[in-house]
Amino acid sequence: METRTSTVRQSDRVSFRIPVEASWFTGDGIPMSHTAETLLVSRNGGVLRLPDKMFPGQEFAIRRRQGMTWKTTQARILAEFDREPDGFLYAFVMLEPRDDFWGIDFPAPQTAEDALARLLMECSFCHRREVVYLNELQLKSFEVRKCVARVCTHCEAPSIWIEALSEAKQDGVTPKAVDLDQQVNPRRKRERVKARVLACIRRRGFQEEVAVCEDLSKGGLSFRSRNQYPEGTRAEVAVPYTPGAGAIFVPIRVVFSQPLPAVGLYRHGAAYVKGLGEGD
Fold first, then answer.
1. Worst-scoring range by mean pLDDT, 72-76, 162-166, 168-172?
2. Ramachandran category for residue 145: left, alpha or beta (phi over 0 → left; psi -120 to 50 → alpha)
3. Which 3 state secondary structure label does DSSP give 92?
4. Measured between alpha carbons, how far is 205 from 234 in angstroms, rounded to an integer?
5. Fewer CB atoms inside 10 A, N or C side of the chain?
6. How far apart are CA 128 and CA 151, in angstroms?
7. E-strand spans in 106-246?
8. Residue 36: CB partners within 8 Å, gap ≥ 6?
9. Closest CA to 78 of 52, 59, 51
10. Could you give the angle at the alpha carbon of 67 between the alpha carbons of 167 and 20, nearest 5°?
C-alpha cells in the first residue's frame, strides 16, 4: 500500500469499494481501459480489482467520478495481491498523491494514540468523509445511536457524523447472534471500556470473520469468535464494524485464547501492533 521502504504506515487503510476507471498502454502501444473497483484505499494507494493481467512496475492512469467532475492521477502496480474469479487484485501506489483523490481525509496515524476505535465517517451536512478516531465518549455514543457529534472543519460548525457506506455494491454479512455474558479476562495492563459492538477479523488465507467485541482499550481489545486464534497469531481487526460500510483494519497480535465450551465459542485478547500489517 505504501512504498516498500516505509516502516510505518503513512495513513490508515480503509476497506472501501469505490468504482474507478483504469487505463494504460500495452507493450504494443495499444490503449486499454477498464472499469474497476477498489477493495482498500489509503492516502497514497490502495488495492484494486482488474480483469486484466498486469505486472509489478506497470504504470496506469486511474480516475473516479465525483459529482459532475472527474479526478485523475497516475499510479504504479506494486504487486499482484490475489486472484479471484472476477479478476486480479493488485496493490498500487499513486505517483501523484492527491489529498482529495478519494474524497477522504486521512489524519496522521500518530494522532490515534488515545483512540479506542476508528471509523470511516461522513458529516451529515456536507457529506465530507474522514477517518475518525473515537474516544470513549464517542464510542459509547456510536454504540447506542450509531452516530457521533463532532465539529466539521469544512462546515466550520458542530454536526452529526454517521458511518460512511461504500459507493459500490457490496455483499452484506449477517453475523449470528451471540450469547454474551459479563465475564472479561482479567489479564490486562490498560483500562478497558466495555463496548458491545461488532468486529471483523481478517487473516491472510482465511475467510473474514465477524465477531463480537467485548471491550476495548488504547492498546488492544477482547472479542468472542467461532474460530480459535492461538496465542501469537497475527491478524487484522476492524472495530466497530458494519457490513457494507467502510472498515478500517489495523494489525493485532493475539495474546490469549480461552475456550468457552458452554456456548461453543472462544474468547480472545489481542494487542494492537504498531507498524505494518499483513500484506504490507
1. 168-172
2. alpha
3. strand
4. 12
5. C
6. 12
7. 117-123, 129-134, 147-152, 157-163, 193-202, 209-216, 220-225, 234-238
8. 19, 20, 21, 22, 48, 49, 50
9. 59
10. 45
The number of C-alpha atoms within 13 Å of 117 and in the hemisphere containing its C-beta is: 33
pLDDT value, residue 76: 95
Q: How far is CA 261 from CA 90, 214, 226, 265, 270, in A?
A: 41, 18, 11, 7, 20
DSSP three-state, residue 163? strand
d(CA 47, CA 36): 11
CA distance 107 to 42: 11
Residue 49's identity, in one-letter code, is: R
Please name the residues in contact with 113: beta carbons below 8 A apart, sequence gap of 6 or more: 218
**CB-neighbour burial class of residue 258 (10 A; exposed 0-12, middle 13-18, buried 19+):** middle
The answer for residues whose C-beta is within 8 angstroms of residue 104's C-beta and 6 or more apart is 14, 16, 41, 120, 129, 130, 131
CA distance 4 to 140: 37
> Between vectors from CA 196 to CA 193 and to CA 198, what angle results, nearest 5°?
120
> Is residue 5 very low, low, confident or very high in pLDDT (cuts 50, 70, 90)?
very low
Average pLDDT over residues 70-85: 90
Q: What is the mean pLDDT of the chain?
A: 81
* Residue showing cell 468457552: 260
Tell me the three cell numbers of residue 115.
483512540
As beta bridge partners, residue 164 has none
Amino acid at 244: G
Q: How far apart are CA 145 and CA 142, in angstroms?
A: 5
- C-alpha 219/C-alpha 202 separation (Å) is 18
Residue 104's closest CA among 17, 200, 1, 208?
A: 17
